[in-house]
Amino acid sequence: MLEMLSGETRIFVIIGHPIAQVKSPAGVTRGFAERGINAALIPIHVLPEDVDSFIAALGPVQNVDGIVVTIPHKFAAQRHCKTLSDRASLLGSANVLRRGPGGAWHGDMLDGLGFVRAMRQAGGEPEGKRALLIGAGGAGSAIGLQLLDSGVAELAVHDMDAGRRDALVERLARAHPGRVRAGSTDPSGFGIIANATPMGMRADDPLPVEIEKLAPDMFIGDVITVPEVSPLLAAGRRLGCKTQTGVNMFLAQRDLILDFLEGKSV
């Protein structure tokens, strides 16, 4: 890939806080190379208080064609988009931006598509299941919407911030009335457990759900990539649960990201 780098290389950036854990730079850059595109994805560590000024500063940079967005900047990123996909507009967040007409940003939210695609690849099926979503941030919002779009019978949402939880429940209920409610850390009775929080990245993090109430027939998915097998997934695997890692989710989403950044419909 290094031999492709030149003054003609098109630049894409991935922004987040923290940023060291992301797998996208190598994976997406390799994907560009496989498609014969001279482009690279560069990680940039941006603090929340600086994200608006950073995205604004990219506006006139002529060789930056797109932005991939990770925690906690997905809500901020959508504010800089002149146009949005329907799902990004509904959720009020975006995890990918590309240049639109006149150089303005067009945004989409692909986390939910990646989560459900990875879930199915791991042997899980959303249709007809009851799902518990932990985390009402950018990724959680997208995962909740896609689980509903994919046919879950009920979605319960839990977040330590009750206001953020209630706002997501209200937002999703507009698209799927009667199928969304507030949840808790108790996974009893659910067929799908989705952790869309950073809990599990640090050794001293609390577990996102009460693991003593997990059951072998549950499917458990996590969004974190480091460690690849989070404490929640490890607990599920000990019981025989089918699981999906954050790395699985990224791999399932990689081609969607590449398609979007190339200007294709996703």
Please provide a written account of the structure.
- The chain has 266 residues and is an alpha/beta fold.
- It is built from nine helices and twelve strands.
- The strands form two sheets. Strands 2-1-3-5-6-4 form a six-stranded mixed sheet. The protein has a six-stranded parallel sheet with strand order 9-8-7-10-11-12, sandwiched between helices.
- Helix 1 (24-34) crosses helix 9, helix 5 crosses helix 6 and helix 5 crosses helix 9 (246-261).
- The radius of gyration is 18 Å and the shape is globular.
- 46% of the residues are buried.
List keywords for this structure.
alpha/beta; 12 strands; 266 residues; globular; 35% helix; six-stranded parallel sheet; six-stranded mixed sheet
Summarize the structure.
By secondary structure, the chain is an alpha/beta fold.
